[in-house]
Amino acid sequence: MKPVHIKPGLFRDRREAGRLLAGRLAAYVNRPDVLVLALPRGGVPVAYEVARTLDAPLDVFVVRKLGIPGYEELAMGAVATGGVRVRNDQLVERLGIPEPMIEAAAAGERQELARRERLYRNGRPPLDVRGRIVILVDDGLATGATMHAAIQALRPLQPSRIVVAVPVAAPETCEEMKAEADEVICAITPEPFDAVGRWYQDFSQTTDEEVAALLSWPSSSAKGEVAPSPTADSALIKALRETAYTLAGSARDYDPLIGRIGDARFVLLGEASHGTHEFYRERAEITKRLIEEKNFAAVAVEADWPDAYRLNRYVRGSSGDVDAVEALADFRRFPTWMWRNTVVVEFIEWLRAYNDTLPPGAEKTGFYGLDLYSLHASMKAVLRYLEKVDPEAARRARERYSCFDHVGGDTQAYGLMTRLSLSKSCEEEAVGQLLELQRRSAEAVQRDGGLADDELFYAEQNARLVQNAEAYYRAMFLEEVSSWNLRDRHMAETLDALVTHLDRKAGRAKIAVWEHNSHLGDARATEMGHRGELNVGQLTREKYAGEAVLVGFTTHYGTVTAASDWGKSAERKQVRPALAGSFEALFHAVRRDRFLLILNDSAIMLQQLGVARLERAIGVIYRPETERQSHYFRARLADQFDAVLHFDETRAVEPLESTAEWEAGEPPETFPFAV
Known about the structure:
Radius of gyration: 26 Å
Number of domains: 4
Strand content: 15-25%
């Protein structure tokens, strides 16, 4: 097949891709024997436009792959709509997988399949495909694993013809699909392909609610959000006014929160964006009180381990940096403003001054990073440590890490090349280096009576980061859920290792954690959990139960420091007023500028905030033009957090290096009216 060279971002979004794809299906317009089945969730907006153009019925065909435990990307079979179960006999026989293992996996996936079908169809029965032409639609084909499973599961239901239709596909996958389907229509087959999302300008996650709304066409509009009525919320708003603690700028504002924290070991302080001044400032103020009044031993943040460790050395007085700005010099990777901002500088200087007042021999409060994006910096840190203490061990480490040399600093290229089998995986080398440092650490603990040297611990954590980052970049080109879970498991593992290390030094250590709400609010109470994602908040609660307190932050409107796309300059953007039906809009209706909620203070609050609503999440990118799709998800706030801080109007955090775009800001919109 001749390669097709097409500019990335051809499709504005899935709906536009569906309209273009429908043009390739003109032969099926107004045929009574045609129906359109979408593979949820991303295939549904595409299929909606196809079905509307063809004037054909629309339904979903839900397929749940049966992954081998521990190797979920390998499918030993699938279960699907209609009670169908198919088996990958070749893989099952080759690996000797016992039938009870297959059935156990199938039982769990059937439950999830049933849940999704109830949610999507709202009581409607699935369409009967027997004797019909079925057009199977997804938003694209990379490996085609889900589409293969769908075709295998659909055949026993006896459709007269199966047509696979997608806007974009890898050329070889499109060709392979022709051996299984009766007809295959791939609107474009670009080379190089890379990933489905590359060919969309907006490839944001399709939500369960959007799927249900689109499937209800034509009986109801798919565009609007159904918001709780003011009458229904009036009792809740009254309860919120009665129980909310007003934040008036007093030194005692956070007494109720400090009381709720009690003797907890972990206080997880979130943020609804990575660029809001109030979130950074108030999180820092709470942390100061935790350090001064409750002897917290460390602050652990959503930053890379080696970059944050330079700050750790500074606040402990063991670095050559002259001030906090210089100590922040390693934070040069996008998005720099997350840590190189004026609020962080003020807090780091405060922490250095606090540590300097402690008596000689007292354990100082540290500052640590939990994230895993610093693959190459962490390899260098391991080598620097070993070169000082054991040149022969440094030689072995250098040999292992040379496995990564062929991709230079491009970590995503490493992930893609290994995924396509164009390059050898460095998993074995990364694991081997971590194991060697762990043995060294264990020997040091045994030799020195239970205490490993801080620098050895630092090197070991860098080796852990290399191992987990290697797995993360390989997983990026599998499933979104897989890479998210790897990242948050790494952050939770690093937090566990840190508390174990600090426990050995000074007894029962307490740690304040700074990350985004999406990492720190319990994932089990959100859409994330429903699609198989976990996070640091969930893992910390599961392991430490009542010893962890989770605190969320929200805002209604204002400005935020964010970029318009990955790697772009920081801008000062207008934050749109919160959508109706969201927690943020509910809190705006309380008519208080800023307040604290302790979520178990009121039975009505606990009950009604335990009902799912929309919740906003702005990361380092803010796209107000697609705000509902890009920045909202559904959550049960009372199960997600123990306490919430709401700031009705907020302003952008100030970067240390402000750009012309940031200084100019964004003109306020007359939202929602374009006048």
